[in-house]
Amino acid sequence: xxxxxxxxxxxxxxxxxxxxxxxxRYKRLRQEMEDLKRRx
Amino acid sequence: xxxxxxxxxxxxxxxxxxxxxxxxxxxPTEKTMGDVQRIFYYHVPSAWTAGVLFFxxxxxxxxxLVWRNTKADALAVAAAxxxxxxxxxxxxxxxxxxxxxxxxxxxxDLRLTLTLVLWLIYVxxxxxxxxxxxxxxxxxxxxxxxxxxxxxxxxxxSIWFFRTQHPQPVIGGGGSIDPRMLHAFxxxxxxxxxxxxxxxxARYRLEVLRREVEETQALESLLExxxxx
Lengths: 40, 229
Fold this sequence. Notes:
The complex is a heterodimer of chains A (40) and B (229).
Chain A: H1 2-39
Chain B: H1 4-26, H2 40-67, H3 70-102, H4 110-131, H5 137-149, H6 151-161, H7 179-228
Helix pairs in contact in B: 1-7, 2-3, 2-5, 2-7, 3-4, 3-7, 4-5, 4-6
C-alpha cells in the first residue's frame, strides 16, 4: 500500500507544485504589466 | 472564455475527486499485483495526457511554421511544458509501480528508455525556448518539436513490436478487464485529459501575458532615449 500512496501523493505534489509556479509567475507578470502601464 | 475557466476548473476538480474515489475504493483489487496495481489509474491517464499535449505541440508547431502565427507558437510552448509535467509523472509512477512488481526500479527496456528519451527531447525544447536569445528560436524549436513527436508512436508501438519488460496493454490489447476497473480507468482518463487541457489553457494565457510584458518593455526602451533628449 505504501507504494500506491507514494505514487498518488507524488503525482499531486508535482501537479500542485507546478500550479503554484504558474500562479507565482502570473502574479509577477501582472505586477510588471501594471508597473509598466503606470510609468507610461 | 475567461468566465468559463473557473466553472471548468470546478468541474475538473469534481471529476478528479470522483476518479480518485473510483480508483481507490470502487475498482476491485487485482489478483496478482494487489493494491499496487491501482497506480495504473494514474500512470496510464498521465501518459495519455502527455501524448495528447505533445501532439498539440506538434500541430501548433506546424501551424507556426506555415503561418508564422505567434499564438500558435505560444500554444506550442504551453503544451510542451504541461506535457513535460505529465511525462514526469509517468516516469515517477512507473518505477514506483515496477519496484514491488518486477523487483527493480528501472530497466533499460525499450518502452521505458523511449519514454525517457521523449521526456529529454521536450526538456531540451523548453531549455532552448528559455535560454536561446536568437530571433530564430521559435522556428528551431518548432522543427525540434516536429522531430520530437516522431518518438510518440515509437513509445506506443514499442511493446507491440518488441519483447519488452513492460506489459502489453490490457485495454485494446485483447486482454479482459473487470467492468468496474474499466469504469475507474475511463473516469480518470477523462479527468486527466480535462485537467491537462485546463492547465495548458492557463499556461497559454500566461505565455501570452509574458509576451505582452516583453513587447511593452521593448517599446518603452525604444521610447525612453527619445523622451530623454
